[in-house]
């Protein structure tokens, strides 16, 4: 890898790696008179025209590519984008394509301007003599500590393409697991939100119409109906206050969750104790811990350093602190399985399989098996949760909406009984 970088450094002019290239769109005709058009970066229009003529194309239009009015910066780079980038890099490098050429091909194929700019910047840095690790370290938001450590280990061992392939598989598995959990939680949350919105519409717009009708009866309303009417009056009079409180509470929750480690730890601890959902989160954290540790250890990252990267990948601050404790215990000579046992978080099976892996010198293999088992457990639990939640949601909707409708018709039933 170092030989490739040095060769590139000699053949590529220095100004190419430091100058800012501008995207141009061009139109022209080839030697047969066939019209052609395309897009190509260059330092200026004259250089691009000269390059096109060298390729046998007579340029008729060369102008800078206009920037779009909306979305000029492009979409946010997601973990799925990084996983796909890793897979592409691994495939091309295994096919013998040099790293700089691989990055150029991948960059040209990107539709997201942010992703394209980042890939091109990485290519430029490597052309200038940086290693892959040094180039991606300039983008810590997109390439987390785990990714960077794995790339550094892969470069050091001369197996970068294998490590990138492993990273791609790892990220795909993790994102699939996260997507499964989000999908399970999204449905009930959205259904309950819709039920609350429908109830609010009934309270603000429908119940007042019934109230006007009830006043003509000249009789006392049933207690349940009176509660709904009072709630409607409050909602009509103070809807703006309710909206401010709800929106304020929503933003305050996420603000403190992002900014306050204590609040985040408290909430993660509470989530782990919720029936069914807590079990899913436990199994998910164990699966991510096992797979991440196995991937980093297999890539040749020292165990203590690997655990440092693993902590933030568990997805739960309770497990994150536990992994840091495991790291500290391993650093002073404790076996991994004993350090895991002291946290009182990992099931007996996980600890025993880790102990067997350590004794047999196949820790990564055993942890991969643990990850596969718990990922399957999460999948099964999520499917079971979906079937369990559906009737519960129906009950909630029935209580909120159905109860309100019944409350509105109680006076009518009472009046019909007296007639």
From TrEMBL:
It is a multi-pass membrane protein. InterPro entries: GspF/PilC, T2SS_GspF_dom, T2SS_GspF_sf. The chain crosses the membrane at residues 185-207, 237-257, 393-413. Residues 85-208, 289-411 form the Type II secretion system protein GspF domain. Gene3D superfamilies: Type II secretion system (T2SS), domain F. Belongs to the GSP F family. This is Type II secretion system F family protein. It comes from Pseudoxanthomonas kaohsiungensis.
């Amino acid at each position: 890898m170092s030989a490739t970088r040095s060769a590139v450094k000699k053949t590529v002019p220095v100004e190419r790696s430091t100058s800012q290239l501008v995207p141009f769109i061009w139109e022209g005709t080839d030697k047969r008179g066939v019209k052609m058009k395309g897009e190509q970066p260059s330092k200026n229009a004259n250089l691009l025209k000269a390059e096109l003529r060298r390729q046998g194309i007579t340029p008729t239009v060369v102008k800078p590519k206009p920037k779009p009015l909306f979305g000029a910066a492009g979409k946010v780079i997601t973990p799925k984008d990084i996983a796909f980038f890793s897979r592409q890099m691994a495939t091309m490098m295994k096919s013998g394509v040099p790293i700089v050429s691989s990055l150029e091909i991948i960059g040209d194929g990107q539709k997201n301007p942010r992703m394209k700019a980042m890939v091109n910047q990485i290519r430029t840095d490597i052309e200038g003599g940086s290693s892959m690790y040094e180039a991606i370290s300039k983008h810590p938001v997109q390439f987390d500590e785990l990714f960077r450590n794995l790339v550094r280990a892969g470069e050091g061992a001369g197996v970068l393409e294998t490590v990138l392939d492993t990273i791609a598989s790892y990220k795909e598995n993790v994102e699939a697991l996260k997507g499964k959990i989000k999908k399970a939680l999204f449905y009930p949350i959205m259904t309950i939100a819709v039920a609350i919105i429908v109830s609010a519409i009934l309270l603000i717009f429908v119940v007042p119409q019934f109230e006007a009708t009830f006043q003509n009866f000249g009789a006392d309303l049933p207690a349940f109906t009176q509660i709904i009417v009072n709630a409607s009056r409050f909602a009509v009079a103070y809807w703006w206050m309710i909206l401010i409180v709800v929106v304020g509470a929503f933003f305050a929750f996420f603000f403190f969750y992002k900014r306050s480690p204590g609040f985040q730890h408290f909430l993660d601890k509470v989530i782990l104790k919720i029936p069914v959902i807590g079990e899913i989160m436990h199994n998910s954290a164990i699966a991510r811990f096992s797979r991440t540790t196995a991937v980093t250890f297999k890539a040749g990252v020292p165990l203590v350093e690997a655990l440092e990267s693993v902590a933030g990948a568990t997805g739960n601050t309770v497990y994150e602190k536990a992994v840091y404790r495991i790291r500290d215990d391993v650093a002073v000579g404790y076996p991994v399985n004993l350090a895991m046992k002291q946290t009182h978080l990992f099931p007996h099976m996980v600890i025993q399989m880790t102990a067997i892996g350590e004794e047999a010198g196949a820790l990564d293999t055993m942890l991969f098996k643990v990850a596969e088992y718990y990922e399957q457990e999460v999948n099964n639990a999520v499917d079971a949760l979906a079937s369990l939640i559906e009737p519960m949601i129906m009950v909630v909707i029935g209580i909120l909406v159905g109860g309100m409708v019944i409350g509105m018709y109680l006076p009518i039933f009472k009046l019909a009984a007296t007639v």
